What we know:
Blueprint: E1 5-10, H1 17-29, E2 37-42, H2 45-51, E3 58-62, H3 79-82, E4 88-91, H4 94-99, H5 104-116, E5 120-125, H6 129-133, H7 137-148, E6 161-164, H8 178-195, E7 202-206, H9 211-218, E8 225-228, H10 235-250
Parallel strand pairs: 1-2, 1-8, 2-3, 3-4, 4-5, 5-6, 6-7, 7-8
Helix pairs in contact: 1-2, 1-10, 7-8, 9-10
Amino acid sequence: MRKEYLIAGNWKMFKTGAESREFVQALARDFTAAPGLTVAVFPPYTALEAVRGLDPKVRIGAQNLFYKENGAFTGEISPLMLRDLAEYVLVGHSERRQIFHESDEDVNLKLLAALQFGLKPVFCVGETLSERESGRTMDRIQGQLDKGLAGVNEEDWARITVAYEPIWAIGTGRNATPGQAQDVHHAIRSWLNEKAPGNRVKVLYGGSVKPDNSLELLAQEDIFGVLVGGASLKVESFSAIIHSGLTLLNA
Length: 251
Ligand code: PEP
């Protein structure tokens, strides 16, 4: 598959609307669009309106959604509400799975709802440290893929991105080595090829990606982008990661 990169920044519960707007404007000044490069940020819900349509080089995603269109679900946001504000949406981020107890079944309902309303889900998978240390990484990932991506229609694969984020590497400063990441990415690619032959689903790596490790990670054969948490909160570091992608695309 020809290399293309999605460089995505998950801002978690950081940044007001005004801060988000200022960030997107500054980021857009820091890089030039290039074929094969997509840049997206995922601000909190409350900042989506402030960044909508600001600059075509910086695409917008939401961090979560509920799977119903509307109803008595206090505090939830539906895909119908999101589709005018965001192009992408994170589904199954490990913080949602762990802190908010989202099951594989919840995640699957959210993914299918996002697709139904025209959003592009970024579906996150990843193993815990104990699963890795006991040699159960691939079983865990395969289980998440089987359950989370169940029922996807043939024509919808084109809108899906998968993010491999080992839980032990998120926000810990301890990233997977490029080789460890590549092994899992290769297994995910094989799963995808079997499930949807000819698909062009991008598989991103996430977990303590920083300017100083992004080039080596992005250079791996089956890594088609990165999902960045902490280092996406500052224009300089996020832009440096984007420039790693640009360097490889121009090589
Ligand atoms: C994330 O939140 O998806 C993430 C990978 O965070 P960090 O880059 O901070 O590890």
